[in-house]
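User: Fold this one for me? It's Ribosome-releasing factor 2, mitochondrial.
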Amino acid sequence: MVSNLMKFVVSHKKIPILHVNNMCCSKMRASLQRLKSHVPLGRNYSSLPGLIGNDIKSLHSVINPPIAKIRNIGIMAHIDAGKTTTTERILYYSGYTRSLGDVDDGDTVTDFMAQERERGITIQSAAVTFDWKGYRVNLIDTPGHVDFTLEVERCLRVLDGAVAVFDASAGVEAQTLTVWRQADKHRIPRICFLNKMDKTGASFKYAVESIREKLKAKPLLLQLPLGEGKAFKGVVDVVNKEKLLWNPNSDDGKDFVRNPLLEMSDPELLKETTEARNALIEQVADLDDEFADLVLGEFSENFDLLPAEKLQTAIRRVTLAQTAVPVLCGSALKNKGVQPLLDAVTVYLPSPEERNYEFLERISRLLLPFADQHIEIPSLTAGNIALTVGLKHTATGDTIASSKSSALAAARRAETEGGKKHRRNNEAERLLLAGVEIPEPVFFCTIEPPSVAKQPDLDYVLKCLQREDPSLKVKLDADSGQTVLCGMGELHIEIIHDRIKREYGLETYLGPLQVAYRETILNAVRATDTLDRTLGDKRHLVTVELEVKPVETASVMPVIEYAGSVSEDLPTASQEAIENGIHSACLQGPLLGSPVQDVAVAVHSLVIHPGTSTTMISACVSRCIQKALKKADKQVLEPLMKLEVTVTRDYLSLVLADLAQRRGTIQEIQTRQENKIITGFVPLAEIMGYSTVLRTLTSGSATFALELSNYEAMNPQDQTVLLGRRSGLTQVL
Ligand SMILES: Nc1nc2c(ncn2[C@@H]2O[C@H](COP(=O)(O)OP(=O)(O)OP(=O)(O)O)[C@@H](O)[C@H]2O)c(=O)[nH]1
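Assistant: Here's what I get for Ribosome-releasing factor 2, mitochondrial.
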């Protein structure tokens, strides 16, 4: 539950800054309630959670391990790759739980929201802390569904390393690419775990190839599988040249043997492993000069003499430098391969001191998370993850700083590290850069309380939900006075609706789901406007002349330019007023009232009568822009989604025919074992409710992933139809 997390590292000097992922009210509330009833669903937890309510001092030694022995890691992947199942195994083998949870039975530790258990998917991240062979591991299970990418992004900000879980029969899937890119952005060292090796169609080679090709990463094969599909029975440890076999009669996978590969008993496997080890050594030497010197100097004649620890140290260096990724394999469901994965986490992923944080702050109440249970603790050392409660005015992604100068320093750093191209207009915007990037919502619908008297309750609930989930936007429709919910996808809005009912006991009604369009202009237009108003004995008089013109930015932030005569001696307050006016006018385009993108505004002249209020300046500029936008040739832009459908050959033509009817364009069709993978683009408006359609078309055998690609101009006929519908005749899309 990263929403409840904050991360900080001790500095004995001044307290500069603290990154906070804000309190997730609902999950916290749910978990505090559960704390009262203690252990949920009869699951059996071992020592740490059992300490709740006991002597806090005895916990102190447990919670303050040496920093080098701490691993803050996340688990990330495409939906259904097996993150939650892998996490459950990890918790079991580490002794955190005493029975194995099952996603399909709905009794896992980390998926504890009702919606998660019912749907078998992860929606909010969950954090758990456990020990493995003398290391303290803080682990975060993140959601895989594309509607919840923001949740993944905010997890990544507090992680030092990550395990990327793949379905070995599918290799790199659409959402893996997205999270991989996010992890690249936050420079997080990773390990790959090829899960589901037991599944029919699982292919180690194929999955490794897809990591190489699609993620453009350099896989380091630290293991080889022993059998694939039904024949999968264990793994070969390439670094140590050992065979790890799980006892087929053990039903929890705890029982496995690790034996050196011998010429006598395994000649073929030994040969294959030696080749793989030699290749690994060469690959690492290519990436790490220190290791290359060692290998060439002492071991060039015989790589077999190279001690495993030296190879591991070099693998660790390249993993931390992110020039390559270790790859391991297994089957979480069949309880094979998880213990070596845990070993790899401790050996190859960084400790917090190996990452670059300098943040610290004292907080009055600190809690240590154990999924949905928490223990109050007096203090915490560097690199740990903890929760804090009671921050009333923060929202997810906020950065809390002890002073404005440290906040600005953080913003500057975020700007440099994020490689931001746009120069921000004012200080407030620059400060925002330190937070997470919030994707623009693509869907919206109206939401109504059961009665007018309940509107304040609904407003309060939505405010709470927005604080923990900034990808949820709420606005008021100026014409109808209705509250409008804007979200990342159908599922996102559905879950919000469900949570309002379950967690706050408020029954609400949703209007039809609609697509969030945008607008742009096709030609440059000039306009002038004057606002002359006398309020009391004060005269407010502004005259502005400006031009709106098309530019390519793919952004709803207008580019603002000033003529030399205007910018000269322009007071900061007036400049901010002008920019507020421009921004507010561009939020509501003349065609559909949607945000206007790809525009630049040039302010050619501006005359302000002394004493005119900034509100009047904003109002005049805003009105003038709206006038100009109305005069321009206009174009509706619609969200275009990147679609990936995995379908068996028998249904391929049916799915393609259906996509053609949805104004879809096909980019390529690949073959992946028995399946065809269709990738292409389709307008969002045409793909609503697609999961039901696809299920019906393919008798439930196909899966798909959807991601916003860009906003694209609608063709004139479709635009006319849309505008006709929106002109008040019907609202259906
Ligand atoms: N055959 C096989 N199935 C697995 C394995 N691991 C997980 N599964 C199944 O795959 C499905 C998805 O597993 P989860 O653990 O919920 O996957 P997830 O990645 O956490 O999914 P989200 O939380 O929704 O993103 C479940 O039906 C699991 O039983 C595995 O190793 N082999």
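One thing worth pointing out: The first strand starts at residue 5 and ends at 7.
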